[in-house]
Amino acid sequence: MKVTGRDPATGRTLSVSTEGGVIAEVRPASESTDLWLAPGLVDLQVNGFAGHDVNAASVTPTTVAALVRALWKAGVTTVLPTVVTADEERITRALEAVREARDADPRVAHAIPYVHVEGPFLSHEDGPRGVHDARHIRPASSAELHRWGDLVGMVTVSPHDDAAIEFIRAATRAGVRCAIGHTHASPEQITRAVDAGARLSTHLGNGAHAVLARHPNYLWAQLADDRLSAGFIADGHHLPADTFKAMLRAKGVDRAHLVSDCTELGGLPPGRYRTPVGGEVELSPDGRLGYVGTPFLAGASRSLADGVATALTMADLTLATALRLATANPGRFAGGRGVLVPGAPADLLTFAWQPGDRTLDIRTVVAGGVLVVDGGALVADDECAGPAASTGPTHHPASPGGTA
User: Fold this and answer.
1) Does domain 40-338+351-366+373-397 have CATH number 2.60.40.1520?
2) Where do the structural domains in the chain lie, given as residue ranges?
3) pTM for the full model?
4) For the segment 103-160, what is each residue's pLDDT rounded down to a tens digit?
5) At what angle do helices 187-196 and 162-173 cross, to 10 degrees?
């Protein structure tokens, strides 16, 4: 298979040949095209998308497979389904659904290298806890991590006590990546966590107190530590443009990546929805998801492709740099994905984009050497087809003005 498009770094046309699921050759091409070419997007934090929710009470392998297919259309070829704070039985049920989906379809297995568990070992304080269920916040436990099984490859944890620090040390020894997030830890505890092996910051700048001491605080400590790679939600709602730009400059492009942190409402029409957790929420035409009657966000709804385009504008980035934040940089935590070099996984996309666009217009997606999206539409495949589990939100369509 050959895929042709413009190199975002140079503007010149490239042709990428694939063979056996990997990139065989990358060479200049003489063809003229208006489409850009990039590695498939790598999203390290996805709770759900297009009505498919890995945290739903009745999640099934079909839910997981449908989530992967929906994300293909949005340009994401590598995804970490993110299981959030719940009782252990529910976390285990979600992990088993992912495991069964991977076992049933090699393309789903390729898309999901492992699972990210965000919680339940988080701060119990209002603000840092975010929307995580306070009833199920609990001390970090290596025994529970072991019971989850080897599909878990990343855990977000708050290092605010000795138990959490020891958890990070043990998890790191076991090959599980640890991310700092939803924390009220002191700067000294942040440093101890990194010394113990933590290497990421989960959606830095969010899951935090509304009011912090100017200095010191846990945000400065994470920005300053060059051993941490920071994830950012660049949807235009979770971080103001000046905050995102300053944080990105402080952390450095080499040590930053974008995540969508998307919920099941991502990719759905604007309007009011009733969700199993959180109740009445409103999704605005610009992608802001908030609790009705409050100024608070109810999660994220914009795709990683949206995040690339928005980050580009918010931080005055080049297209090549913005793409790097959603491909090669997060790909380092997924086995070296997100690069166009011979021998790398054949995960590719072509898209249309012009300055000022709010998203990347995905046209072609190749995942593991297989064409899965052509002309912006999914390629038919009975093995992956199937309705989503009926656990999603109830939708009340928005009026033309964007309100229910």
Assistant:
1) no
2) 40-338+351-366+373-397
3) 0.94
4) 999 999 999 999 999 999 999 999 999 989 999 999 999 999 999 999 999 999 999 9
5) 20
